[in-house]
Amino acid sequence: MSEQQPEAAELRALTQELLAAHPPATTGAIDFLKARFDAGLAWVHYPVGLGGLGAPRSLQPVVDAELTAAGAPDNDPRRIGIGLGMAAPTVLKYGTDEQKRRFLRPLWVGEEVWCQLFSEPGAGSDLAALGTRAVRDGDDWVVAGQKVWTSSAHVARWAILIARTDPELPKHQGITYFICDMTDPGVEVRPLRQITGEAEFNEVFLTGVRIPDAHRLGAVGDGWKVAQTTLMNERVSIGGMRLPREGGMIGSVARTWRERPELRTHDLHQRLLTLWVEAEVARLTGERLRQQLVAGQPGPEGSGMKLAFARLNQEISGLEVELLGQEGMLYSDWTMRRPELVDFTGRDAGYRYLRSKGNSIEGGTTEVLLNIVAERVLGLPAEPRNDKDIAWKDLAR
User: Which of 76, 253, 276, 348 is within CB 3.0–4.6 Å of 320 for a Cys-Cys bond?
Assistant: First the structure.
Protein backbone atom coordinates (compact mmCIF):
# COMPACT_ATOMS: atom_id res chain seq x y z
CA MET A 1 0.00 0.00 0.00
CA SER A 2 1.25 3.48 -0.81
CA GLU A 3 2.31 5.92 1.91
CA GLN A 4 -0.46 8.29 0.83
CA GLN A 5 -4.09 7.81 1.77
CA PRO A 6 -5.33 4.56 0.18
CA GLU A 7 -7.72 4.80 -2.74
CA ALA A 8 -10.81 2.69 -3.35
CA ALA A 9 -8.92 0.19 -5.53
CA GLU A 10 -6.29 -0.34 -2.85
CA LEU A 11 -8.97 -0.90 -0.21
CA ARG A 12 -10.69 -3.47 -2.42
CA ALA A 13 -7.36 -5.27 -2.88
CA LEU A 14 -6.67 -5.25 0.85
CA THR A 15 -10.16 -6.57 1.55
CA GLN A 16 -9.67 -9.41 -0.92
CA GLU A 17 -6.35 -10.24 0.75
CA LEU A 18 -8.14 -10.40 4.11
CA LEU A 19 -10.82 -12.70 2.67
CA ALA A 20 -8.20 -14.97 1.09
CA ALA A 21 -6.20 -15.27 4.31
CA HIS A 22 -9.27 -15.71 6.51
CA PRO A 23 -12.12 -17.29 4.49
CA PRO A 24 -15.42 -16.45 6.22
CA ALA A 25 -16.75 -19.97 5.62
CA THR A 26 -13.96 -21.57 7.67
CA THR A 27 -12.93 -18.77 10.07
CA GLY A 28 -14.71 -18.12 13.35
CA ALA A 29 -16.54 -14.81 13.55
CA ILE A 30 -14.40 -13.33 16.34
CA ASP A 31 -11.16 -14.44 14.69
CA PHE A 32 -12.25 -12.89 11.40
CA LEU A 33 -13.22 -9.61 13.06
CA LYS A 34 -9.88 -9.44 14.87
CA ALA A 35 -8.06 -10.00 11.60
CA ARG A 36 -10.18 -7.31 9.94
CA PHE A 37 -9.33 -4.85 12.72
CA ASP A 38 -5.63 -5.64 12.48
CA ALA A 39 -5.75 -5.13 8.71
CA GLY A 40 -7.08 -1.60 9.23
CA LEU A 41 -10.46 -2.39 7.68
CA ALA A 42 -12.63 -1.96 10.78
CA TRP A 43 -13.11 1.81 10.46
CA VAL A 44 -10.80 2.91 7.67
CA HIS A 45 -10.65 6.56 8.77
CA TYR A 46 -9.04 5.64 12.12
CA PRO A 47 -5.24 5.72 12.44
CA VAL A 48 -3.05 2.82 11.38
CA GLY A 49 -2.77 0.30 14.21
CA LEU A 50 -6.14 1.27 15.69
CA GLY A 51 -8.39 -0.49 13.20
CA GLY A 52 -7.89 1.97 10.38
CA LEU A 53 -5.65 3.16 7.58
CA GLY A 54 -6.04 6.91 7.81
CA ALA A 55 -8.30 6.77 4.75
CA PRO A 56 -11.28 9.05 4.06
CA ARG A 57 -14.37 8.03 6.00
CA SER A 58 -16.30 8.04 2.72
CA LEU A 59 -14.41 4.90 1.59
CA GLN A 60 -15.74 2.67 4.37
CA PRO A 61 -18.68 1.52 2.17
CA VAL A 62 -16.15 0.18 -0.34
CA VAL A 63 -14.82 -2.25 2.27
CA ASP A 64 -18.25 -3.06 3.65
CA ALA A 65 -19.63 -3.93 0.22
CA GLU A 66 -16.78 -6.37 -0.50
CA LEU A 67 -17.20 -8.08 2.85
CA THR A 68 -20.98 -8.29 2.59
CA ALA A 69 -20.73 -9.86 -0.87
CA ALA A 70 -18.36 -12.47 0.54
CA GLY A 71 -20.68 -13.34 3.44
CA ALA A 72 -18.23 -12.09 6.07
CA PRO A 73 -19.52 -11.72 9.66
CA ASP A 74 -20.18 -8.29 11.12
CA ASN A 75 -19.76 -7.18 14.72
CA ASP A 76 -23.51 -6.84 15.44
CA PRO A 77 -23.43 -3.04 15.69
CA ARG A 78 -26.88 -2.78 17.28
CA ARG A 79 -25.64 -4.75 20.29
CA ILE A 80 -22.49 -2.64 20.72
CA GLY A 81 -23.85 0.67 19.45
CA ILE A 82 -22.83 2.68 22.52
CA GLY A 83 -19.28 1.47 22.23
CA LEU A 84 -19.05 2.08 18.49
CA GLY A 85 -20.94 5.36 18.30
CA MET A 86 -19.99 7.04 21.58
CA ALA A 87 -17.11 5.45 23.49
CA ALA A 88 -14.80 4.80 20.54
CA PRO A 89 -14.68 8.35 19.09
CA THR A 90 -14.20 9.76 22.60
CA VAL A 91 -11.35 7.36 23.40
CA LEU A 92 -9.80 8.13 20.02
CA LYS A 93 -9.86 11.89 20.61
CA TYR A 94 -8.96 12.07 24.31
CA GLY A 95 -7.46 8.71 25.23
CA THR A 96 -3.80 8.01 25.83
CA ASP A 97 -1.96 5.68 23.45
CA GLU A 98 -2.25 2.94 26.05
CA GLN A 99 -6.01 3.50 26.42
CA LYS A 100 -6.53 3.37 22.66
CA ARG A 101 -4.61 0.11 22.37
CA ARG A 102 -6.42 -1.45 25.32
CA PHE A 103 -10.01 -0.53 24.53
CA LEU A 104 -10.61 0.01 20.81
CA ARG A 105 -9.96 -3.51 19.47
CA PRO A 106 -12.18 -5.51 21.89
CA LEU A 107 -14.79 -2.74 21.63
CA TRP A 108 -15.01 -2.97 17.84
CA VAL A 109 -14.83 -6.75 17.72
CA GLY A 110 -17.73 -6.92 20.17
CA GLU A 111 -15.92 -8.81 22.91
CA GLU A 112 -16.64 -5.98 25.38
CA VAL A 113 -19.98 -4.19 25.55
CA TRP A 114 -20.10 -0.58 26.75
CA CYS A 115 -22.76 1.53 28.45
CA GLN A 116 -23.11 5.23 29.30
CA LEU A 117 -23.26 6.51 32.90
CA PHE A 118 -24.32 10.13 32.30
CA SER A 119 -27.96 10.79 33.27
CA GLU A 120 -28.99 11.11 36.90
CA PRO A 121 -32.39 11.18 38.63
CA GLY A 122 -31.53 14.45 40.40
CA ALA A 123 -30.28 16.30 37.33
CA GLY A 124 -33.02 15.68 34.78
CA SER A 125 -32.22 17.21 31.41
CA ASP A 126 -29.60 19.50 33.00
CA LEU A 127 -26.77 17.01 32.68
CA ALA A 128 -24.15 19.45 33.99
CA ALA A 129 -25.97 19.53 37.35
CA LEU A 130 -24.98 15.90 38.04
CA GLY A 131 -24.10 15.03 41.62
CA THR A 132 -22.20 11.72 41.41
CA ARG A 133 -18.89 12.39 43.20
CA ALA A 134 -15.39 11.18 42.42
CA VAL A 135 -12.78 11.80 45.14
CA ARG A 136 -9.05 11.31 44.56
CA ASP A 137 -7.41 8.63 46.71
CA GLY A 138 -3.79 8.12 45.70
CA ASP A 139 -3.69 6.69 42.20
CA ASP A 140 -7.44 5.96 42.28
CA TRP A 141 -10.72 7.85 42.29
CA VAL A 142 -13.51 6.69 44.60
CA VAL A 143 -16.93 7.19 43.04
CA ALA A 144 -20.34 7.34 44.73
CA GLY A 145 -23.71 8.22 43.20
CA GLN A 146 -26.58 7.04 41.06
CA LYS A 147 -27.11 6.96 37.30
CA VAL A 148 -30.31 6.22 35.39
CA TRP A 149 -31.67 5.27 31.93
CA THR A 150 -28.54 3.21 31.32
CA SER A 151 -29.01 1.04 28.25
CA SER A 152 -27.08 -2.26 28.25
CA ALA A 153 -25.72 -1.81 31.80
CA HIS A 154 -26.81 -5.38 32.57
CA VAL A 155 -24.47 -6.78 29.89
CA ALA A 156 -21.75 -4.10 29.82
CA ARG A 157 -18.11 -4.68 30.68
CA TRP A 158 -17.15 -0.99 30.62
CA ALA A 159 -18.92 2.34 31.00
CA ILE A 160 -18.18 5.92 30.05
CA LEU A 161 -18.81 7.94 33.21
CA ILE A 162 -18.85 11.61 34.15
CA ALA A 163 -18.61 12.56 37.81
CA ARG A 164 -18.13 15.71 39.87
CA THR A 165 -14.57 16.09 41.11
CA ASP A 166 -14.73 19.69 42.39
CA PRO A 167 -18.01 20.97 43.88
CA GLU A 168 -16.40 24.37 44.53
CA LEU A 169 -16.46 25.17 40.81
CA PRO A 170 -19.45 26.06 38.61
CA LYS A 171 -21.34 23.03 37.43
CA HIS A 172 -19.78 22.79 33.95
CA GLN A 173 -16.20 23.13 35.25
CA GLY A 174 -15.95 20.64 38.09
CA ILE A 175 -16.64 17.46 36.10
CA THR A 176 -14.18 14.74 35.05
CA TYR A 177 -14.63 11.92 32.55
CA PHE A 178 -13.74 8.29 33.40
CA ILE A 179 -13.85 4.76 32.08
CA CYS A 180 -15.62 2.67 34.72
CA ASP A 181 -15.23 -1.07 35.22
CA MET A 182 -18.77 -2.46 35.47
CA THR A 183 -17.49 -5.58 37.28
CA ASP A 184 -16.34 -3.53 40.28
CA PRO A 185 -18.10 -4.84 43.42
CA GLY A 186 -19.44 -1.35 44.14
CA VAL A 187 -21.48 -1.29 40.91
CA GLU A 188 -25.10 -2.40 41.31
CA VAL A 189 -27.38 -2.60 38.26
CA ARG A 190 -31.15 -2.67 38.70
CA PRO A 191 -33.66 -3.10 35.85
CA LEU A 192 -36.13 -0.35 34.92
CA ARG A 193 -39.24 -1.87 33.38
CA GLN A 194 -40.59 0.18 30.50
CA ILE A 195 -43.98 0.67 28.88
CA THR A 196 -43.07 -2.13 26.44
CA GLY A 197 -42.86 -4.60 29.33
CA GLU A 198 -39.11 -5.02 28.90
CA ALA A 199 -36.23 -3.66 30.96
CA GLU A 200 -33.78 -2.56 28.31
CA PHE A 201 -32.83 0.39 30.56
CA ASN A 202 -31.34 0.22 34.03
CA GLU A 203 -30.51 2.34 37.04
CA VAL A 204 -26.96 2.01 38.33
CA PHE A 205 -25.81 2.59 41.91
CA LEU A 206 -22.13 3.34 42.51
CA THR A 207 -20.86 2.76 46.05
CA GLY A 208 -17.15 3.13 46.71
CA VAL A 209 -16.27 2.24 43.12
CA ARG A 210 -12.52 2.57 42.58
CA ILE A 211 -11.35 3.85 39.20
CA PRO A 212 -7.61 4.08 38.48
CA ASP A 213 -6.46 7.51 37.36
CA ALA A 214 -5.12 5.69 34.31
CA HIS A 215 -8.78 5.26 33.28
CA ARG A 216 -9.45 9.00 33.22
CA LEU A 217 -10.16 10.51 29.78
CA GLY A 218 -8.93 14.07 29.39
CA ALA A 219 -7.69 16.38 32.11
CA VAL A 220 -9.23 16.65 35.57
CA GLY A 221 -12.08 19.13 35.33
CA ASP A 222 -12.40 18.81 31.54
CA GLY A 223 -15.20 16.26 31.72
CA TRP A 224 -17.84 18.53 30.20
CA LYS A 225 -15.67 19.23 27.15
CA VAL A 226 -14.92 15.53 26.71
CA ALA A 227 -18.60 14.69 27.14
CA GLN A 228 -19.54 17.02 24.27
CA THR A 229 -17.62 14.75 21.91
CA THR A 230 -19.60 11.79 23.20
CA LEU A 231 -22.96 13.56 22.97
CA MET A 232 -22.42 14.91 19.45
CA ASN A 233 -21.42 11.45 18.23
CA GLU A 234 -24.37 9.90 20.06
CA ARG A 235 -26.88 12.09 18.24
CA VAL A 236 -25.32 11.35 14.88
CA SER A 237 -25.34 7.61 15.59
CA ILE A 238 -29.03 7.73 16.60
CA GLY A 239 -30.41 10.17 14.05
CA GLY A 240 -27.97 9.74 11.18
CA MET A 241 -27.69 5.97 10.85
CA ARG A 242 -27.22 4.68 7.28
CA LEU A 243 -30.47 3.23 5.87
CA PRO A 244 -31.60 2.08 2.43
CA ARG A 245 -34.67 3.65 0.86
CA GLU A 246 -37.72 2.58 2.90
CA GLY A 247 -35.40 1.41 5.65
CA GLY A 248 -36.43 1.67 9.28
CA MET A 249 -39.94 2.41 10.49
CA ILE A 250 -41.33 3.72 7.19
CA GLY A 251 -40.57 0.38 5.57
CA SER A 252 -42.87 -1.52 7.93
CA VAL A 253 -45.90 0.68 7.35
CA ALA A 254 -45.28 0.87 3.59
CA ARG A 255 -45.14 -2.91 3.41
CA THR A 256 -48.42 -3.21 5.30
CA TRP A 257 -50.00 -0.66 2.94
CA ARG A 258 -49.00 -2.67 -0.13
CA GLU A 259 -49.96 -6.06 1.27
CA ARG A 260 -53.27 -5.08 2.90
CA PRO A 261 -55.31 -3.00 0.40
CA GLU A 262 -58.48 -3.53 2.44
CA LEU A 263 -57.06 -1.29 5.17
CA ARG A 264 -56.53 1.75 2.94
CA THR A 265 -58.40 5.04 3.19
CA HIS A 266 -57.84 8.33 1.40
CA ASP A 267 -56.81 10.11 4.61
CA LEU A 268 -54.30 7.40 5.56
CA HIS A 269 -52.92 7.48 2.02
CA GLN A 270 -52.21 11.21 2.20
CA ARG A 271 -50.56 10.89 5.59
CA LEU A 272 -48.43 7.96 4.44
CA LEU A 273 -47.25 9.87 1.37
CA THR A 274 -46.27 12.85 3.51
CA LEU A 275 -44.36 10.72 6.01
CA TRP A 276 -42.70 8.69 3.24
CA VAL A 277 -41.33 11.89 1.69
CA GLU A 278 -40.19 13.21 5.07
CA ALA A 279 -38.47 9.92 5.89
CA GLU A 280 -36.66 9.99 2.56
CA VAL A 281 -35.59 13.59 3.10
CA ALA A 282 -34.28 12.65 6.55
CA ARG A 283 -32.41 9.68 5.10
CA LEU A 284 -30.71 11.78 2.43
CA THR A 285 -29.93 14.52 4.95
CA GLY A 286 -28.29 11.89 7.13
CA GLU A 287 -26.19 10.77 4.17
CA ARG A 288 -25.05 14.35 3.61
CA LEU A 289 -24.20 14.70 7.29
CA ARG A 290 -22.05 11.57 7.17
CA GLN A 291 -20.21 12.98 4.16
CA GLN A 292 -19.55 16.19 6.11
CA LEU A 293 -18.00 14.12 8.89
CA VAL A 294 -15.13 13.31 6.54
CA ALA A 295 -13.85 16.80 7.31
CA GLY A 296 -13.87 16.39 11.09
CA GLN A 297 -15.87 15.81 14.25
CA PRO A 298 -19.69 16.02 14.26
CA GLY A 299 -21.22 19.32 15.24
CA PRO A 300 -24.64 20.46 16.43
CA GLU A 301 -26.25 19.43 13.13
CA GLY A 302 -26.55 15.93 14.56
CA SER A 303 -29.03 17.32 17.09
CA GLY A 304 -31.31 18.31 14.22
CA MET A 305 -31.12 14.80 12.77
CA LYS A 306 -31.93 13.26 16.12
CA LEU A 307 -34.95 15.58 16.45
CA ALA A 308 -36.25 14.48 13.06
CA PHE A 309 -35.62 10.81 13.89
CA ALA A 310 -37.71 10.98 17.07
CA ARG A 311 -40.62 12.87 15.52
CA LEU A 312 -40.78 10.66 12.43
CA ASN A 313 -40.63 7.42 14.40
CA GLN A 314 -43.50 8.51 16.62
CA GLU A 315 -45.67 9.75 13.76
CA ILE A 316 -44.98 6.73 11.54
CA SER A 317 -45.68 4.21 14.31
CA GLY A 318 -48.89 6.06 15.17
CA LEU A 319 -50.00 5.87 11.54
CA GLU A 320 -49.19 2.15 11.44
CA VAL A 321 -51.37 1.45 14.47
CA GLU A 322 -54.26 3.40 12.91
CA LEU A 323 -53.83 1.60 9.59
CA LEU A 324 -54.11 -1.79 11.30
CA GLY A 325 -57.30 -0.81 13.14
CA GLN A 326 -58.26 -3.34 15.78
CA GLU A 327 -55.15 -5.40 15.03
CA GLY A 328 -53.07 -2.39 15.97
CA MET A 329 -54.45 -2.54 19.51
CA LEU A 330 -52.98 -6.01 20.07
CA TYR A 331 -49.65 -6.50 21.82
CA SER A 332 -47.83 -9.78 21.40
CA ASP A 333 -45.85 -10.18 24.60
CA TRP A 334 -45.61 -8.31 27.91
CA THR A 335 -42.96 -10.65 29.29
CA MET A 336 -40.39 -8.90 31.46
CA ARG A 337 -37.10 -9.38 29.59
CA ARG A 338 -33.73 -7.64 29.67
CA PRO A 339 -32.80 -7.49 25.98
CA GLU A 340 -29.36 -6.72 24.64
CA LEU A 341 -30.61 -4.49 21.81
CA VAL A 342 -33.64 -2.58 20.53
CA ASP A 343 -35.31 -4.29 17.58
CA PHE A 344 -37.82 -1.91 15.99
CA THR A 345 -38.33 -3.72 12.70
CA GLY A 346 -38.37 -7.26 14.06
CA ARG A 347 -41.33 -6.69 16.39
CA ASP A 348 -45.02 -5.88 15.94
CA ALA A 349 -46.71 -2.52 15.42
CA GLY A 350 -47.72 -2.23 19.09
CA TYR A 351 -44.11 -2.55 20.20
CA ARG A 352 -42.95 0.06 17.69
CA TYR A 353 -45.65 2.48 18.82
CA LEU A 354 -44.80 2.16 22.52
CA ARG A 355 -41.01 2.01 22.17
CA SER A 356 -40.86 5.07 19.90
CA LYS A 357 -42.18 7.20 22.77
CA GLY A 358 -38.71 7.00 24.27
CA ASN A 359 -37.05 8.37 21.13
CA SER A 360 -37.79 11.95 22.18
CA ILE A 361 -36.08 11.38 25.55
CA GLU A 362 -33.04 9.16 24.95
CA GLY A 363 -29.94 10.70 23.43
CA GLY A 364 -31.01 14.19 24.52
CA THR A 365 -34.58 15.29 25.11
CA THR A 366 -36.41 17.10 22.33
CA GLU A 367 -36.55 20.28 24.42
CA VAL A 368 -32.77 20.32 24.99
CA LEU A 369 -32.04 19.57 21.35
CA LEU A 370 -34.34 22.36 20.18
CA ASN A 371 -32.28 24.76 22.29
CA ILE A 372 -29.04 23.43 20.76
CA VAL A 373 -30.34 23.84 17.22
CA ALA A 374 -31.70 27.32 17.97
CA GLU A 375 -28.50 28.60 19.56
CA ARG A 376 -25.73 26.72 17.76
CA VAL A 377 -27.19 26.14 14.30
CA LEU A 378 -29.58 29.07 13.78
CA GLY A 379 -27.57 31.53 15.87
CA LEU A 380 -30.53 32.70 17.96
CA PRO A 381 -29.90 34.40 21.34
CA ALA A 382 -29.11 32.01 24.16
CA GLU A 383 -31.55 31.51 27.01
CA PRO A 384 -30.63 33.41 30.20
CA ARG A 385 -28.63 31.15 32.49
CA ASN A 386 -28.13 32.58 35.96
CA ASP A 387 -26.31 29.56 37.40
CA LYS A 388 -23.31 29.35 35.07
CA ASP A 389 -20.90 31.16 37.40
CA ILE A 390 -22.18 29.80 40.73
CA ALA A 391 -20.30 27.02 42.50
CA TRP A 392 -22.14 23.72 42.15
CA LYS A 393 -22.33 23.27 45.91
CA ASP A 394 -24.26 26.55 46.18
CA LEU A 395 -26.90 25.71 43.58
CA ALA A 396 -30.48 25.28 44.77
CA ARG A 397 -31.51 21.64 44.63
Answer: 253
203 in active site: no
Nearest Cα neighbor of 117 from 174, 160, 64 is: 160
Report DSSP letters for 235-254, one per residue: HHHHHS----TT-THHHHHH
Q: How far apart are CA 34 and CA 29, in angstroms?
A: 9
Write out pLDDT tens, residues 146-155: 999 999 999 9
Dihedral (CA of 295, 223, 79, 244) sign:
negative
Query: Where does the chain have alpha helices with state H?
Result: 8-21, 29-38, 60-69, 81-82, 88-94, 97-109, 223-239, 249-259, 266-292, 301-324, 349-355, 366-372
Which class for 202: exposed (0-12), middle (13-18), buried (19 or more C-beta within 10 A)?
Answer: buried
296 pLDDT above the threshold of 70: no
By the 8 A CB rule, do 306 and 235 touch?
A: yes
To the nearest 10 degrees (0 to 180), the angle between helices 266-292 and 301-324 is 160
Q: Which residue in 66, 198, 200, 234 is the catalytic one? A: 234
What tens digit of pLDDT does each residue of 225-237 get? 999 999 887 766 6
pTM (global) more than 0.85: yes
How far is it, in rounded angstroms, from Cα 274 to Cα 113? Answer: 38
